[in-house]
Amino acid sequence: MAKQLGAKPRIGLLGTGPWAGRTHAPALAGHPGIEFSGVWGRRPEAAAALAAASGTRAYDDVDALFAASDAVAFALPPDVQAPLAVRAAEAGCHVLLDKPVATTVAGAREVAGAVEAAGVASVVFCTLRFAEPTARWIEEQVAVGGWFLGEAHWLGSLYGAGSTSEYAASPWRREKGGLWDVGPHVLSVLLPVLGDVTEITAARGPADTHHLVLRHTSGASSTATLTLGAPPEAAEAALTLYGTGGRAELPRWDGAVGAFGAAVDALIGSARTGGPDACDARFGLRLTEILTAAEAMAEAKAEARATEGALQDPSASDSPSHSASSARGYNRSGGVA
Description:
Blueprint: E1 10-14, H1 18-30, E2 35-40, H2 44-54, E3 58-59, H3 62-67, E4 71-74, H4 78-90, E5 94-98, H5 105-118, E6 122-125, H6 127-130, H7 132-144, E7 147-155, H8 171-181, H9 183-194, E8 197-204, E9 210-216, E10 221-227, E11 236-243, E12 246-249, H10 257-273, H11 281-312, H12 320-332
Parallel strand pairs: 1-2, 1-4, 2-3, 4-5, 5-6, 7-10
Antiparallel strand pairs: 7-11, 8-9, 9-10, 11-12
Helix pairs in contact: 1-10, 4-5, 5-11, 7-9, 11-12
């Protein structure tokens, strides 16, 4: 059963990494409307340090933090977050999730199902949906309507030459790349403005780059280029809409602490009214479904190209066993023998 919020809701934090230290903890510690109830992390010493710096207490037992909190915020790798979010919801805690909710559809579906079964509120922290200038811009473009085309690119340089970012050490980002790290940000803008995705085409580019072409329920189409491996000189994030009213460009935003505070407010509002937030766990599940489909399509195309190249390589005929294995791979990827 969902916990009832008092005048000053108790909100705990799961996670102690750079994102938690720079965004979540400062926002929770500085929010005048809540009590920052504590910190739990997979490294107890890091939880103790972050808690001390934030004026709260550390917990060694995550279930004890759930018991001491009305809601919990997550700053954990997605596939660590998902099962813990299920446990938090089952404990009656409202959940403020990070994006992506999970990197598997099954994991995201379990979170959405647990939230629904427990009747708790949920919000997925997609920064652009809560940063004041971008959130207002999205609402304005929804009201304008008549959009024909959307173009987005998020060229991060996390893995570019000379990068010293703390986030580059994140194993899940290293594995999943820009598609999963910045893809949710772009989709969180395109979907409310252009409608849900009905068709997806995806292909890989250099480094971890993914190119997406999307059709939407409104009839509009959009493109998105996503990477964390761009040269630092080329780094940029931009999104432009084209339609009957001309063109509109997503405004710049500054930092994430204020945006996270707005996400806290959205979670509290949803918990008090019982109405779902537009950026809830169900929306997070939809993002995971879209990204999973895009990843699978891009991988299949890359595998097919690699196999075709091997078949066309004259040296392949020198090795019967090589030719046989290449042909089998081509068949598995949907080609003909």
